[in-house]
Amino acid sequence: MKIFRALFVSVRLWLILLGFALAFVVAYVWPLLFPLVQIAFAAFVVLLLTEGFLLFRQSTVGNQPVFFARRDMPERLSNGDENPITLYLESRYAFATPVEIIDEIPFQFQRRDVLFTAHLKPNEPRAIRYELRPTRRGEYSFGAVNVFVMTPLRLLKRRFQFEEGRLVPVYPSYLQMRQYELLAVSNRLTELGIKRIRRVGHSMEFEQIRPYTQGDDLRSINWKATARRADSGQAALIVNAYQDERSQAVYCLIDKGRVMQSPFEGLTLLDYAINASLVLSNIALMKQDRAGLITFSEKIGQVVPAERRPGHMRKLLEVLFRQKTRFLETDFEALYTTIRTQVRQRSLLLLFTNFETLNGLQRQLPYLRRLAKDHLLLVIFFDNTELRGLLNTPARSTEEIYMKTIGEKFAYEKRQIVKELQQYGIASILTAPQDLTANTVNKYLEMKARGMI
């Protein structure tokens, strides 16, 4: 029974059988051809049995399986990123084996093209690489790696199955977080669109004094220390060295309401906000600040106090991974109450939400003004990229003119929302979803450089 379960036939075999059927029909009309067709068919049957024998005669070679395959992938996948998957193959057949590989990927990807072909020589390892881009957090179930091995005749197939039943969690974009972290360490954040911020004045903490080097700000020269050094016979300029102010509290406030349900390139705005929050929290910890998190919708979700302890980044990652929502109406009053009772120190609050109309902002503006009174509030909301594409397309009919007029109205209201927030001294970012992380990190570094937090 195992042999029959592993036995499959190729399309080539069905075509040959169809050809023999037509040949027998022709031989029925011309009987002289019948013996030739019979001999050819008998030879074909012998060839088929020989191929089956070569495929199934052994399951191992020595102590090793006759064919081996393995799926190599991360222990967790990064949401919204291209995650590398590698299939390792090795054949120990005595002859060259054409193979077909079907990887049973989770249904969430809705892909039917994960079929690969290869041609393996005896004892030749082969690696096949492809990428998967998940668009939802959660657990994904991978099935088996099905390998169909054939002889050079390609008539019969023997199926091997490997890596059955594996659950892999999909976390917020930790690949993006690592990318920003590595570039921040090497001072190459400009490659991701992060601007260099010129520091104005000395809004930083004093760290130490050191000898002057070319490029130092002349205003930082410590003349008293320089004079003392000159009196001792060492003529060298001494400058004051400063470091960024540390231990500032930075909170990411993530709106999980219905306004964050809109999709963009497969991800919801909520997932874009979660990915950006993860990156920003990591950058804040690298800048010696304390990172915290509050999620909210119709009620308050998780509250993670701002800390900078070992393992805190891991804690934030796990909390963001488990975020669930029904996309109901957001309660900003509950958010304000929670922050007032649990965030005692003046902090930087980065509010990830979305406003489509000016009326929608004005309903929540009283709570935003109260938050801005006690904290430094930065409201981050999204530009409608589909609407932007509509506005950039020339109208060719009356209906398109009508649609474009409505689009202009919505775009105008987005700009009015920014001005309305500026009127009350509330900083804001209007950004496309794909630029959210870079724009948010830019604004955080700008505020930090200017000593606003």
From TrEMBL:
UniProt xrefs under InterPro entries: DUF58, vWFA_dom_sf
Source superkingdom: Bacteria
Transmembrane segments: 12-30, 36-56
Domain DUF58 residues, every copy: 208-385
Keywords: Membrane, Transmembrane, Transmembrane helix
Name of the protein in question: DUF58 domain-containing protein
Record organism: Fibrella rubiginis
Taxonomic lineage of the native organism: Bacteria, Pseudomonadati, Bacteroidota, Cytophagia, Cytophagales
